[in-house]
Amino acid sequence: MASLRIAYFGTPxxxxxxxxxxxASHHRVVVLVSQPDxxxxxxxxxxxxxxxxxxxxxxxxxxxxxxxxDETFVAALRALDLDLGVVAAYxxxxxxxxxxxxxxxxxxxxxxxxxxxxxxxxxxxxxxNGDAETGVTIxxxxxxxxxxxxxxxxxxxxxxxxxxxxxxxxxxxxxARLVVDVADSLAAGAPIETPQDDSRATYAHKxxxxxxxxxxxxxxxxxxxxxxxxxxxxxxxAQLGGVRCLVHRTGITDETTDATPGTIAQAANGVIAVAxxxxxxxxxxxxxxxxxxxxxxxxxxxxxxxxxxxxxxxP
Length: 315
Prior knowledge:
By secondary structure, this protein is α/β, with parallel strands linked by helices. It folds into 2 domains: 200 residues, Rossmann fold (3-Layer(aba) Sandwich); 95 residues, Methionyl-tRNA Fmet Formyltransferase, Chain A, domain 2.
C-alpha cells in the first residue's frame, strides 16, 4: 500500500490524537497547518497550539497562516506534492484554493454522526440537546459546510452525566482510529463515499457567552443538560450566598418541591438544591465562586451562608 504525503490541519486538543495516529502510521505527515499561537494566562505569554507541540516534537514543519488564502501559504502547500489533507477542528473554513491542492482532496474528522450537527459546536449541541448517542464521521471536505460524502463513522453513547470535554476526548480517540483506516482505503484506491441525506441535517451553532445565563423555569433535566454542555466555556452562571458562581456539575434527583423555580430549596448538610420549572430539585454538586477554584457544594457551604428561597439567577 502506498504511503501518502499528508498535510494535517488542526489546532486544539481534539486534533491531537488524529495527528499522533497518522504520525504513527505508515503514511507521512509532511506539514501541520495550525492556527497561530495565542497568548494565555495572567502573563499573556505566547503558547504553542496543542497540535504544534506534537508536530515540533516529531520534527514536522508547521505553518500557521493568519489567512488560508494567503498566496505565500498556498504556494508553500503546492510545493509539498501533497496526496491528502486531513482536517480536525482546524477552526476555519478551508477555501477552494486549498481544497484543490492535495491529489486526493481533503477529509475531515467531524465529531458528530453527520448529517446531524454540522457546524462549529457539534459536541456541545449534542450534549445540550440531551442526545443519547453521538459519534465521529470521516467525510470529504467540500465547499458547503460539513456536507461532503461520508467515508466512515463510529458511534458512541453519551452518558447522562457526561460533559462536553469528556465526550470530546473520547470522540477524538475514536476519530484517530478511523482516520487511518480511511487514509489506507484512499491509498489503496478503494474508498467508499456515501452522500449525506441533506433533509436530515441539523446545525450546531457556535456557543455564545449569553447562553450561560439560563432560564431556571426549564425542567431539571434540561438545565442539567445545559450545565453539562456549556463546558468548558461559558459555563452556567448562578448567584449563591451573595457571590456570583459558575456551575460545573449538577445532579438529577427525584425530589419534588413547591418552591419557586430558580430559588434555593435546600442548603444544608453539604447539599445545595435548586427548584426547577418541572417542580423537581436539581442539586449543584460542584461550583466555582468568582476568583476562586472549583469546589464541592459541601466546601462552599462550609464558608458561606446560603438562604433558603434566595434567587439563584444572575441579574
